[in-house]
Design goal:
With 399 residues, the chain is of the alpha/beta class. 39% of the residues lie in helices and 16% in strands. The strands form 3 sheets. Strands 3, 4, 5, 6, 7 and 8 form a 6-stranded parallel β-sheet that branches. Strands 9, 10, 11, 12, 13 and 14 form a 6-stranded mixed β-sheet that branches. A hairpin with a 2-residue loop joins strand 9 and strand 10. Helix 2 packs across helix 3 and helix 10 runs antiparallel to helix 11.
Length: 399
């Protein structure tokens, strides 16, 4: 039996020069800070939220704006806007506005962390996520929640789209939005446009940060992003929850011999793309009590020939579904079942194949959800003893 979980704000304009106040960049600051007028105009939700939460607070902020004017000190601006936070990101200390209220997020590794931190209303734009994946996110998080998010483009952002949205923070990854070739780098955004940028930790450039486990990478991003959006308490609770779920699974009964799992990200006529020992999916596989069938391969994302897949002969296969095209589950499975080199594998003939949304193969807040679904599937195939562990994320809407 195959376990299939699959699918088949406008911004207020900048005021004219007569009402524009320029606040000098303080010494030691890594980015040009936006004035109080700019911050308030670029996020029309600030005043509405203050009015909802406290009419007195809204009145005080309005009074500060009226009284301080262009001669206001940096201290009074910070006091009215809750200030800033400095976090270490990819080996560099970077100062961000906190709480950031107009985040431009590229690709799902950032979005998934923001959703885990209940920071939906801190997002001003999202790019780099195809419609088919948005459909999957609806099945994972609910249609109403996802449809309220500001998706702007299926393609990764460019400088023009960033400037148009006027974010106070940009979040992406090297190779997942940030690109030296396209001249969209955190350094350029900061130096040329005064916009601080956050790099998702697994994409830090080699040598910029000490090596850490995929779990610690996930915890680091949750903690840092939590500070940037002002949800430190939610981040701390989420990290502790993930640690407890991980400990529970690591304490679950194990088999005498760990079953082998192959994680396949792409299938073509030439072979498959998979996950070697350095890949984060190895950590997910191992926490379930299984073993990566390619843990002897030191390459992170190796391309394997059909003969190599046959030689590995995994007990279980995990495929991720992009929702359409060659990346869809059905397309990948068809090639595996039709190719002479793999169609006789026990995992294929006995249907020991798990299908997961592609975003469950990413670093971050969903790593334990992925592990729980994999553990459950391995138990159903009697490859691991029964543990009583149940997946917390419901994927039934994707079946």
């Amino acid at each position: 039996m195959f376990f299939q979980f699959l699918q088949p704000s406008s911004q207020t304009p900048r005021p004219d020069d007569s009402t524009w106040c320029s606040v000098p960049t303080p010494q030691g600051s890594d980015h040009t800070r936006r004035t109080m007028s700019d911050r308030l105009h670029s996020d029309s939700n600030i005043m509405s939220r203050l009015k909802t939460q406290s009419p007195l607070a809204a009145g005080l902020v309005a009074a500060v704006v009226a009284l301080t004017g262009c001669g206001s000190s940096d201290e009074s601006v910070d006091a009215a806007l809750d200030g800033e936070v400095t976090v270490e990101n990819c080996g560099t200390e970077i100062t961000f506005p906190s709480p950031a209220t107009a985040i431009y997020a590229n690709d799902s590794q950032i979005l998934l962390n923001l959703l885990a931190l209940d920071a939906d209303d801190h997002i001003t734009a999202i790019s780099g996520i195809r419609d088919s994946r948005v459909h999957q996110l609806r099945g994972m998080y609910g249609t109403e929640r996802i449809d309220e998010l500001p998706f702007k483009s299926e393609e990764s952002f460019n400088l023009e789209s960033i400037q148009a949205q006027r974010p106070d923070v940009v979040m992406a990854g090297h190779g997942w939005g940030f690109s030296v070739e396209k001249h969209i780098t955190p350094e350029r955004l900061n130096d040329d446009f005064g916009i601080p940028a956050y790099i998702v930790t697994p994409t830090c450039l080699p040598g910029s940060v000490d090596t850490m486990s995929p779990w610690d990478e996930a915890y680091t991003d949750l903690s840092n992003i939590g500070s940037i959006v002002g949800h430190d308490d939610i981040a701390a609770a989420k990290i502790e929850e993930l640690r407890q779920r991980r400990e529970e699974m690591e304490s679950a009964p194990r088999g005498e011999e760990a079953p082998t799992v192959m994680y396949i990200t792409a299938v073509s006529n030439e072979g498959v793309s998979s996950a070697g020992k350095p890949h984060l999916f190895t950590s997910i596989i191992e926490v379930t009590g299984a073993r990566n069938a390619l843990d002897g391969v030191d390459e992170k994302s190796p391309k394997m020939s059909w003969e190599s897949v046959t030689a590995a002969n995994p007990d279980f296969i995990v495929l991720t579904d992009t929702g359409d095209g060659a990346g869809a589950f059905d397309a990948k499975l068809a090639l595996l079942t039709e190719n002479p080199a793999t169609r006789s594998l026990d995992a294929i003939t006995q249907g020991r194949v798990l299908n997961l949304p592609t975003d469950m193969g990413r670093s971050g807040a969903l790593m334990m959800d992925t592990a729980e679904h994999m553990r459950k599937a391995l138990e159903k195939e009697q490859l691991l003893p029964q543990s009583g562990i149940e997946p917390r994320m419901d994927l039934s809407e994707l079946e």
